[in-house]
Write a structure and sequence with these properties.
8-stranded mixed beta sheet, 6-stranded parallel beta sheet, 35% helix, single chain, 17 helices, alpha/beta
C-alpha cells in the first residue's frame, strides 16, 4: 500500500515518477541525526522551497512516502501522527514546530488509523524508525509529547491563550480540567509553541511542576525535544530566584502552603528571598514572580492540608482580578480513560456514596475483586499483555520498608507487598510492578490498567448510607495533622478519585472494609 523512495536532497535529485509533481504525499528529510517531517501535494516544488531555506540545509536525504490511496486529509493526519511517533522513537531529533497539530476528522479516518500500522512497519523495514507503535505508546515521551494532536477544547484554549498573550502579557490564565482532560499536554504544547514563536523570542518562560516525581520525568523528556531543555522545568522554589514573563504551572492544586510540609526552613527562605512572609504560599510566589501565570488546576485533586484548596484558590483569583486581566478556560473532554466523562462522574459518585444505579462502560474494565491472590495474579497477567500496569493504594499502611528494605508494609490474605521504593520516577522504575504505589508516586501519570487497593482508612456506614473515614488507619501524618474529620474525609476521597482515574483501559479494585465492599459490589461487577 505504501511506497517509500529515497531522494538526494543535497543535490536535488528526486526521480521522475509523475506523483512527485502532483499527488498528496508525505516526506522525511534527514541527515542521520535530525529529521523534519512534512506533507505536500507537490513534493518536488516543496523540496525546492526547503532547499532555499537556511534551517533545512542541515539535511542531505529525503524519503518520499506515496500511496495511491492518499488524499490531503490523510496526509495531514499522517503527518501529525508521524511527528508524534518519530519524536517518541528518538532515532532522530525532530526539527518540526508544533503549530497546527490538531485531531482532524475526515471520511474513512477509522480505516486509515488502522492502516497507519502498515506504514509504520514499512518505515521499520527501511530502518527509518526503531520501536513498535505499542512500545512508543507506553513511553512518557509519547504521552507528554508537545506534538500531541489537540481536541477541540484543548485547541480552543491554546489558540485563545496565545492570541491573548500576543495582545497583553500582564494577565492571569486559569485552565480547569478533570483528571485525563489533558492539562499537562496543553501546558507542554503551549511551552513548545511559545519557544518556537518569533514573537516570544527572548521572553523568560518557565514550566513549574510541583510534584518531584513528575518534575524528574519531564526534565528527562524535555532533554529529548528540540527547542526545549531540562532547565525549563522548575520547582516552585526556583521561581523565587528570578522574574519571568510567563510561567506555565502544571497541577497548580499541588502547590503548597507553609503547613504540614517537611521543608519549612527552605520554604521560609524562599519567601524571604522575594519579600514575602510565610503567610504566603507557593501560588503567591508564582503570582509575584511573573507577568503572566497560566495555572492548570483541578479542585478535586487536592489531597492534603498543604495543598491549594478551592476556597483559597478562588480568593487569590479574586485578588488577581483586581490587579490584571483574569481569563478562565475549561477542558471538558476525557482523553485518558476509555470509559470517558461518564466513568469519571461515576467514580465521584461512588466515593461520595451517592450512586443511584449501576452503570457499565463500553471498552472499559471496572471490576471489584474479593480474592487478593487473584487480584495480584491478574495484575501480572495484564502487565505481560500490555505493560504499564501498576498497583496503588491509599496511605492505609505504615511505610516501614523506607528504613528497612527487608520488611513488608502491606499484608492482605497472606500476600505481602512493599510500598514504592522511591517517589521520583517510580511508575517506570524496574521493580514497580512488584510494589504498591502511593498518591505521590502516581498522580499525573497514565497507566494502561490500575489495580487499586482501598484500605481500612475508608469505609461505609450502611445505617447512614454514607462514606466514612478512620484517621487511626491513615498513616500520612502530614496529611492529617491539622485536618478536621470532614477535611480528612475529603482528602481521602480525592486520593482515591485520583488513583481510580489513572487507568486508560481499566480499573480493578480490592476493598479492605467489608461494608464498603458490600456497598460497592451493588454498583460494580464483582469477581
Amino acid at each position: 500500500m505504501f511506497k517509500i523512495t529515497e531522494g538526494d536532497f543535497k543535490n536535488q535529485i528526486y526521480g521522475d515518477e509523475s506523483y512527485l509533481a502532483n499527488w498528496p504525499m508525505l516526506y522525511i528529510l534527514e541527515n542521520g541525526k535530525q529529521a523534519y517531517i512534512g506533507e505536500s501535494n507537490h513534493v518536488k516544488n516543496r523540496m525546492s522551497q526547503h532547499h532555499g531555506s537556511v534551517d533545512k540545509r542541515i539535511f542531505d536525504k529525503v524519503h518520499f512516502i506515496y500511496s495511491s490511496k492518499f488524499n490531503q486529509s490523510v496526509t495531514f493526519d499522517y503527518e501529525s501522527k508521524l511527528i508524534q511517533y518519530i519524536v517518541a522513537d528518538e532515532l532522530y531529533e525532530v526539527r518540526n514546530k508544533n503549530a497546527g497539530m490538531a485531531d482532524k476528522e475526515y471520511y474513512g479516518k477509522k480505516e486509515y488509523d488502522e492502516k497507519f500500522q502498515l506504514l509504520w512497519r514499512s518505515l521499520q523495514r527501511e530502518k527509518l524508525v526503531k520501536h513498535s507503535l505499542e512500545e512508543l505508546e507506553n513511553s512518557d515521551l509519547f504521552k507528554y509529547s508537545p506534538f500531541k494532536e489537540l481536541n477541540n477544547d484543548q485547541r480552543t484554549a491554546v489558540e485563545e491563550i496565545i492570541a491573548s498573550l500576543k495582545q497583553e502579557e500582564n494577565q492571569t490564565v486559569v485552565v480547569n480540567g478533570m483528571p485525563g482532560s489533558g492539562k499537562t499536554i496543553v501546558a507542554i504544547f503551549l511551552l513548545k509553541y511559545l519557544r518556537d514563536s518569533e514573537e516570544f523570542k527572548g521572553k523568560k518562560i518557565g514550566f513549574v511542576v510541583p510534584q518531584t516525581s513528575l518534575r524528574k520525568t519531564l526534565k528527562g523528556i524535555f532533554r529529548s525535544i528540540y527547542g526545549l531543555k531540562a532547565s525549563d522545568v522548575l520547582a516552585p522554589s526556583d521561581v523565587t530566584k528570578q522574574y519571568y514573563d510567563i510561567l506555565l504551572v502544571d497541577e497548580a492544586h499541588r502547590l503548597h502552603q507553609y503547613k504540614n510540609i517537611s521543608y519549612m526552613g527552605a520554604f521560609k527562605a524562599s519567601c524571604e528571598r522575594i519579600g514575602l512572609t510565610t503567610d504566603s504560599d507557593e501560588l503567591d510566589w508564582i503570582l509575584h514572580q511573573c507577568k503572566c501565570p497560566v495555572l492548570f488546576y483541578d479542585a478535586m485533586q487536592v489531597v492534603g492540608p498543604s495543598g491549594i484548596d478551592v476556597k483559597r484558590f478562588r480568593s487569590k483569583m479574586k485578588m488577581e482580578q483586581a490587579k490584571r486581566l483574569l481569563i478562565y478556560y475549561n477542558l471538558l473532554t476525557q482523553m485518558r480513560v476509555k470509559g470517558g466523562n461518564d466513568y469519571i462522574d461515576y467514580v465521584k459518585a461512588i466515593l461520595a456514596g451517592e450512586v443511584k444505579e449501576k452503570k457499565n462502560f463500553k471498552n472499559y474494565d471496572l471490576i471489584l475483586m474479593t480474592n487478593f491472590a487473584k487480584f495480584n495474579d491478574l495484575m501480572y497477567q495484564k502487565e505481560k499483555e500490555t505493560g504499564l500496569v501498576r498497583m496503588a493504594a491509599g496511605y492505609a499502611w505504615d511505610w516501614a520498608s523506607k528504613n528497612d528494605k527487608d520488611v513488608y508494609d502491606i499484608e492482605i490474605q497472606g500476600i505481602k507487598k512493599q510500598w514504592n521504593h522511591c517517589t521520583e520516577g517510580w511508575v517506570h522504575s524496574e521493580n514497580a510492578i512488584n510494589e504498591v504505589g502511593c498518591i505521590h508516586s502516581t498522580q499525573g501519570y497514565d497507566l494502561n490498567y490500575a489495580f487499586i487497593i482501598l484500605g481500612s482508612e475508608i469505609g461505609y456506614n450502611p445505617d447512614t448510607k454514607s462514606i466514612i473515614v478512620r484517621g487511626e488507619h491513615y498513616y500520612d501524618q502530614n496529611g492529617k495533622k491539622t485536618a478536621s474529620y470532614e477535611e480528612l474525609k475529603e482528602y481521602i476521597q480525592h486520593i482515591y478519585y485520583v488513583l481510580m482515574t489513572r487507568g486508560i483501559r481499566g480499573t480493578y479494585l480490592y476493598v479492605c472494609d467489608p461494608k464498603l465492599r458490600d456497598y460497592i459490589s451493588h454498583y460494580i461487577d464483582t469477581e
